[in-house]
Design a protein that fits this description.
The complex is a heterodimer of chains A (293) and B (380).
Chain A: E1 10-13, E2 25-31, E3 35-42, E4 45-53, H1 58-70, E5 82-86, E6 98-99, H2 102-114, E7 118-124, E8 129-134, E9 140-145, H3 154-164, H4 168-175, H5 190-200, H6 213-233, E10 248-252, H7 259-269, H8 283-292
Parallel strand pairs in A: 2-5, 5-6, 7-10
Antiparallel strand pairs in A: 1-4, 2-3, 3-4, 7-8, 8-9
Chain B: H1 3-9, H2 11-22, E1 26-29, H3 36-41, E2 45-48, H4 68-78, E3 87-91, H5 95-107, E4 112-116, H6 127-146, H7 152-174, H8 185-195, H9 200-216, E5 224-230, H10 237-244, E6 247-253, H11 271-280, H12 295-305, E7 310-316, H13 320-335, E8 340-345, H14 351-366, H15 375-379
Parallel strand pairs in B: 1-2, 1-3, 3-4, 5-6, 5-7, 7-8
Helix pairs in contact in B: 1-8, 4-5, 6-11, 7-9, 12-13
Classes of the chains: A alpha/beta (293), B alpha/beta (380).
Chain lengths: 293, 380
Amino acid sequence: MSKYGIWPECVWRSPEMNWRAARRITAGIDAGTTSTQAAVLCDGALFSYASLATGVDFNRSATLAMERALEGTDMTVADIHAMGRTGWGSANVPFPAQHIDEVQCHAKGGRFLFGPEVHTVVDLGGQTCKAIRLFDWDRVRDIMMNDKCATGMGRSIERLCELLEIPITEIGPRSLEVQTDPEPVSTTCFAFANTETMGLFGRPEFRAEPLSEAEVYASHLFAVAWRILGTIGKLQPLDVGDIQVYGALGFTGGLAKNPGITRRIERELKVTALESRYDPMLAGAIGAALLAG
Amino acid sequence: MDQFKQLVENRHAYAQSWKARTGGKVLGWYEPYFPEELAYAAGILPVRLLARHEPDDRSEKWMYAACYPARDILNQFLKGRYDYLDGMVTVEGCQWMYHAFESTLRSRPEFWNHYLFLPDYTDAPTSKTVLRSELQVFQEKLEAWTGRTVTDADLDWAIEVYNKNRLLLRQIYELRRAQEPVILGSEMMHLILADQVMDKAEMNEILERFLEELEQRTPHRDCIRLMLIGSETSDAALEEMAESLGANVVVDELDTGSSYFWNNVLPQKDRLMALALRYLGRPHNPIKDNNWRRRPQHIFELYEDFSADGVIIAKQIYCHLHGTDNYAVWKLLRERNIPYLFFERDTTLPEEETRLRLESFLTVVRQGATHVCGWHKTLA
């Protein structure tokens, strides 16, 4: 299996925290379609986490993620007081955990990662794009989500990177090398969009001015960003008559680490997204841990 | 499977047995404004053409990129599922349904058919006389087709049967106002759908028995109360999904739901005028509501009357009527801080995405996150 389309797996542990001193330990597992995260919180602060590619077995990925998050800490699953599970593979998580819906997890996790000022959390996941509007307190005002296929979301970009043999960490920055974005590719279907992007390479005889590599990436990512913008734009304002349409914005999920997507959304919305304190892919797992606790 | 779901599933067999039993004709109708009473008075069984969730493997040659109910009804005709019909009628309304009607006629020219004009501007000064004359034309055409004169007595009988049917449906529907209703949304939707494909006199007997059964039933526990609005549908998949997540659809504003039976025919000497006024005065779908925009207010009144906690808007993909009207509905819901969730339906309901969105929406409603009318109940 090609490694171009996979985000580097990672493990992190708080260097200074002593979990034995914690009064309440909670954990969350986000078993997503393309990646799985486990996060362990001690008294509401992040103690450790692990993130890895989901692969074909949700059960195995969830177990592995939790094992890695606990590795070298002396902590076992039995030490955890409450656990939450979320994501498309949530039902396969083999630990005794409470199922919590993804939107609530990303909302809660978004507040954790971006702070109380965030009012719009956009989860750019493997299969879905969830735009979530939050009140001043941690409650969801409105949600918008793609309701059919995974068009253009994480898995589609991963597949494209495998096809183009470009690491997923590089496609975003490379796409930003262009002065102006070319016409976006078709946004209607993942298969069509990827085929169209592949078609932009080669066959220069059919183009008066062949596109550069960066322009090809820009063409694809612009299309994806445009589609996400449509989802964000449909969110209800915070209050009737609210003119601050987007509020403070934070991106979570794998595509949040792709500046080719996030910068284009920021540019179109004329906002600067908030910086995440930790890996933005952790939002679901952290939210599950907080809500389970 | 509940009895009404079964009736909907077996609707083709039912119509065929009715035909064999009575020797009468069966007439398929497309649009919610079809005055069934006229056909019934002529001894005909009017049946609503309902879609099924099947791949439209034949219809694409004839029509493309229309809503799935229109495509699927055509598909069923092309597959021969409606071969037992003797004729079909469409009423001025949705263009996709008209397209399905015309395409069916091209492939099946032998069908007796009629296009009934019903003014889009239902409140115009001449609308009732226009519709009355259209009904007159339709009546004469039916008489020529069946060889039977439709008398005032026939019309009175048909109106009586239909009014009784609507009354019974309304009686059952009103039970949903209760905090702990005895009937769930999915069962009610199947009941209304079954009603539209059955002989009303027979259905009335079933409904009377069912009302007695309901009196003995243990009420369902109190849960999140939802309202369902949007394009017409031919199943209760969304209601069933909501129930599986601990909610209940307690009220709807669908052409295939409450709007079908909400108002009665008020008898008057001129029977055709009485019918015309009933159909011009029913709760309107978007295409007939483009003048006065009464639909949003009707939705709000139902929402309040049935103490709903949130609204699901389920529009069929490519449904331009509801696509256009939705903005007025969204505006109303936003202004009154009513939480709502918008879906687009297609041939199939994407199970996981829909469940995920519905689950999240229910959490939002359960938390009483907005100043919704009725939200106090969710805190209780």
